[in-house]
Amino acid sequence: MRSASEHDKVEGFPVHFALNLVLVSSESRSKVLLAMARSTSKDAQALLHSFRSAYAATPTNLKIIDLYVGFAVFTALIQIAYIAIVGSFPFNAFLSGLLSCIGTAVLAVCLRIQVNRENKEFKDLPPERAFADFVLCNLVLHLVIMNFLG
Amino acid sequence: MAASETSKETILRYAFGNVLSFFILVLIGVLAFSIRLFSVIKYESVIHEFDPYFNYRVTQYLTKNGIYDFWNWFDDRTWYPLGRVIGGTVYPGLTLTAGTIWWLLSSLNIPLSVETVCVFTAPIFSAFASWATYLLTKEVKGAGAGLMAAALLAMVPSYISRSVAGSYDNEAVAIFALIFTFYLYIKTLNTGSLFYATLNAIAYFYMVCSWGGYTFIINLIPMHVLLCIVTVMTSEHFASFLVFIIIHVVALVYYIKGILSPKMFKVAVTFVVSIGVVVCGAVLAVLIALVASSPTKGWSGRSLSLLDPTYASKYIPIIASVSEHQPPTWPSYFMDINVLAFLVPAGIIACFSPLSDASSFVILYIVTSVYFSGVMVRLMLVLAPAACIMSGIALSAAFDVFTRSIKFQLPGATENSERDAGETSSNSVVAQNDVAKTEKNEDAVKERPSKKNRKKEKEKENVEKPSVKSQIKKKLLILPLEASIIAIFLLVLLGAFYVVHCVWAAAEAYSAPSIVLTSHSQDGLHVFDDFREAYAWLSHNTEVDDKVASWWDYGYQTTAMANRTVIVDNNTWNNTHIATVGTAMSSPEKAAWEIFNSLDVKYVLVVFGGLVGYPSDDINKFLWMVRIGGGVFPHIKEPDYLRDGQYRIDSQATPTMLNCLMYKLSYYRFVETDGKAFDRVRRTEIGKKYFKLTHFEEVFTTHHWMVRIYKLKPPKNRIRGRAKKSKSKASSTTGTKRIGTKKKNPWH
């Protein structure tokens, strides 16, 4: 067993694997299947790594917005877990908490789309204006939420 | 030099166009306001019909007691003995709007009474609605179409019918909120700005506060979003995005296929596919379980009757009985939207060239509203703005073609065509303000006028100048000169016909306040003010806590004008209570007295039109009393009242009918009017002419016998035994037995 590194595994594996197929007999097919499972997991790791490297290239402000969206969704999930465990009374409070999380996540996604400099549709929109819109929408959303809390 | 002169000319022309549009809009507002004033001129400044009286009473309460008391108001003067939570069940939009207007005016020391503000709220908001239609259509097609659509909406009879001066009902403000919400939605689509999205949300909130028809918006907008996602033309990046995803998926699949053995690959594919199917199935199962757990599959009765028009008549007679819930007849389409009915298809075709987000939305709007208007007469009101928008687009496009044909074929045309070629390209620069003329821009500019495109267009301008001439020859349609002149003349004639019809409809058909009736006879105008006479009598001659029983139609008017507690009113939220009153009206005198006594009723009010020929009286509504009562209390059977399948009150009437309370209270002493008791509405002489009332006594009948008020006779102190035929006093034992049986409640 040696630790796999992506570079040699990607190129050399198909040839290696074809040879294995030819030489194997039916009794050691299970060993081959195990090797298959390991290979798929290594491919998943390769995919993940490529994702990570592409994502590292995004500018910092977009990453902060993504973090905020992740936090909002995580809070929503916590609330859903709570309601599954404890119960939904009072329902108004649950709804307003959940909608506040989801609403602010959606608005943050809109902000991210408008601020992203690679997006040609919003090239002429200054990011300050986009942020001001985001703040205004959040104000209105949370006004409604505070009223609905009951 | 020449270029700057022509650009100066175009700027001047645009300035002139802007000012002209502004004045046209002001005139349209004045038109919308004044065409709704016929009832005020012909009758008086009074609230109409039934529902507006409730809204008026609520507004009075709001202005007198303030908003906190209004929000927590529990009304004990209706639906006795149940009461009604008004604060929680009313749509506050209309009341708060009128209340705010009154408060604003009174704080400026302009002393208008609450009634005046309520009466004139609807015409003011119809002016706002036509301005909102201008804005909406301008976003879809351009300013010319916008002005046309606004002018059409100001006059369309369907909208006039629910918003005359005095018709103080939810639709008065709700139609304005509907059109304004749609305008802000289209604006958000076109500009992509979150600011307009916020305004859209606030306008939708106002719509939800005002009318139950908000469900139309909340279903239409998501359907349109789905449509936009499904059709490729909406986003220029959509195809590349979709193919980007597809390419990556295909590459991944090939890669994995290359790595794994064929058997493993099949396993992997089945693994992924099965996981996807399981997840979708789980979501679907959860949805189905949630929906199936409610008995009506999550839909309310009213919504179900919208989807299946026959649902209400089979299951819920009270929804079927409301006159506004009946399906419209074919002539009512022509009456209500007139000429627009055959301009709408032309508008739909005009929307397809070119098809944008906004025009696809308007097409979806008109298709769904046409379907729903076929289900309920009341929803013709939702069709009206859509029809006006479509017709405005059609008329504007038609006028475009004809005027352009005339312009390019006039004797001085050749030099004009070159100047226009130059103007077209410079127009693309100036065209970014709101009043852009569409006929010049549809070739040079994309259909999204917004400030951010200005830079793009400046670059395009230089490229487009040489190609503009060829574009004119390619795309613009020119018709022969005589044909266009005649066509313009015919279109103007069509518009004149529309205007004449609308004014006639507003003046004659839709301005009746229904609380005051008039008729023309040889001696001139005859006014029937019987309703207000009866309510005034009630308010002056009865105690404050007396309960009045009548059919639910008159509940709102009784509480608002007579200020007495009623048993049932137009809100119709409790079917059993209405069925109780219906059963009482259909039962013989004694049983009816029992029922009314158990509800603490003191007076019974009956509307009777037989003397003057008023067709909407209680005898004509009697079939609903029987049906609704029979739906809850099985001892009321409809066939008992029918002879050959018809409700009759003449000599062929069934004995159940001749003995029921409604018959007796309507026709008591009727024979004294003309000696023959001829009922002018049913056009026959009545069956039983001479009878006495044993448990009720007549206390008031109005001048034309239209409203008749009866009082419940108190129970006798000493009861005569049934066995004794002589007039001796009853023995104590039979007396107590009788009292015992009399006190027993028949409902247990």
UniProtKB/TrEMBL annotation, chain B:
Q: What is its main location?
A: endoplasmic reticulum
**Compositionally biased region (Basic residues):** 718-728, 739-748
**What residue ranges are annotated as transmembrane?**
12-35, 85-105, 117-136, 142-161, 168-186, 238-256, 268-292, 333-352, 359-377, 383-402, 476-500
Q: Where is this region: Disordered?
A: 415-465, 718-748
| Residue ranges with Basic and acidic residues bias | 436-465
> In which residue ranges is the amino acid composition biased (Low complexity)?
729-738
GO CC aspect terms: endoplasmic reticulum membrane
GO MF assignments: dolichyl-diphosphooligosaccharide-protein glycotransferase activity; metal ion binding
Residues covered by the STT3/PglB/AglB core domain = 545-604
Quaternary state and interactors: Component of the oligosaccharyltransferase (OST) complex.
In the record, the note on similarity to other proteins reads: Belongs to the STT3 family.
Q: What is this protein called?
A: dolichyl-diphosphooligosaccharide--protein glycotransferase
Which species is this UniProt entry from?
Carya illinoinensis (Pecan)
